[in-house]
Write a structure and sequence with these properties.
Layout lengths: L6 H17 L1 H17 L6 H11 L7 H17 L8 H7 L9 H18 L5 H16 L4 H17 L3 H11 L8 H17 L6 H20 L6 H15 L3
Length: about 260
């Protein structure tokens, strides 16, 4: 912390050894406490990228017991609530650390990671760059797609509305619809129903904001892909298919 101005020069030379101390059972507790102190007292514009990349490394592979991983996520939640305005170059690594792929079959930790995504979407998303917002949209859909906790999947669709409120360009709108569309054919009935309702509600609610190019993309590309995916399901759900066709037809009248 004393050498925080030289952090980018100092940290790369000790990060590897420090991570080994974190992984060693005998040195883990004091090393974690030191790392958490660094996060809380030394998270600055000079250190944010390197520290976020270290957090990503800590979640690459299940190197720690569930309790330790949960503690690290609590520190990420703290950073997001207190120092989000400092994070700039570190967003890519931090979002990778929060990926649900890191927490498969770990329901409690998955919930902790999702709470971090919720604070991003509710309090921070609007102030971020379009590139970072796009990465967060992809992360939201990852949480909707994960199969560890269906309640998280359903809650993730609500966060897409936060993303839609920030969408100002053709690319952003295309990404939202492109990422949501495959979930309409999700084998989980509740998820597929939520996906089709969200997909169509986003179109109708934002009909005045959507450009002609988006409507052409929906009509000529996505609608066809959705119908094909529903027809080709190995175990089709008739109720879901009927709902999808009904909602798509309703949307079609708005195109």
């Amino acid at each position: 912390i004393v050498n925080i101005k030289r952090f980018e020069q100092v940290w790369p030379s000790i990060e590897g050894s420090f991570c080994l101390l974190l992984e060693n059972e005998e040195t883990q507790e004091p090393s974690l406490n030191a790392f958490f102190k660094l996060l809380r007292e030394g998270f600055t514009k000079e250190s944010e990228q390197s520290l976020c990349e270290t957090l990503k490394v800590l979640f690459s592979g299940k190197k720690f017991v569930e309790e330790t991983r949960s503690q690290i996520l609590e520190e990420i939640h703290f950073l997001l609530s207190q120092y989000s305005e400092i994070i700039s170059k570190g967003w890519v690594a931090l979002l990778d650390a929060l990926s649900p792929n890191n927490f498969s079959e770990e329901e409690e930790i998955m919930n902790s990671a999702f709470r971090c995504v919720q604070i991003i979407c509710n309090d921070i998303l609007f102030s971020l760059t379009e590139n970072t917002q796009s990465q967060i949209i992809s992360l939201i859909v990852e949480f909707a797609s994960q199969t560890t906790d269906i309640n998280i999947s359903l809650s993730a669709f609500g966060l897409l509305w936060n993303a839609a409120s920030c969408a100002k360009t053709l690319e952003m709108w295309k990404l939202i619809f492109q990422k949501t569309a495959p979930l309409i054919s999700d084998p989980r009935t509740d998820v597929s129903t939520c996906a089709i309702n969200t997909f169509c509600s986003l179109i109708i609610s934002n009909s005045k904001a959507l450009s002609k190019d988006i409507y052409q993309y929906l009509a000529n590309d996505l609608f066809v892909q959705i119908i094909d995916s529903l027809i080709q399901q190995t175990e089709p759900n008739e109720a879901t298919i009927q709902l999808a066709f009904h909602e798509l037809a309703h949307c079609g009248r708005n195109l």
